[in-house]
Amino acid sequence: TTRECEHWIAKVGEIENQMKIIEHKYNAEKKCLHGWCPDIFSRIALGERVLEMINHIKDLHEQSKFEGGFVTDLPPARVEKQPIPTLTAKTSADCTLEKVVNSIRDGMTQKIGIWGMGGVGKTTVMQLLNNTSTDGVLTFF
């Protein structure tokens, strides 16, 4: 949960405790002793305290609309190596990968697009790039 949410939950706990105290006081005062019922002034004070608590509860309810949400985002998923066919000779996929890596490292390139007909090795290039990036040399963010 976010800190804002945790703080709100703590406030709700405080209000719950205060309401239990008020309820206990009400239950203790509602009993009559030898025909004498509770003092009207203490009942008025108790009623005012209840109204005050109701206003606190309304405020807490309004504060429950968290702008950032209830939980923080998960960190980005870890890049995992993908199985690719082993390449013995330098292929066009290796040449394309080298161009892509150089473009990423130069810092000037903002977007890279890899396209082509089916079967030319786009997926292989991306898998090679994915596996190359796990060594910590390439940063995409």
TrEMBL record:
Keywords (A to Z) from UniProt: Plant defense
InterPro entries: P-loop_NTPase, Plant_NBS-LRR
Organism: Davidia involucrata
Protein name, UniProt field: NB-ARC domain-containing protein
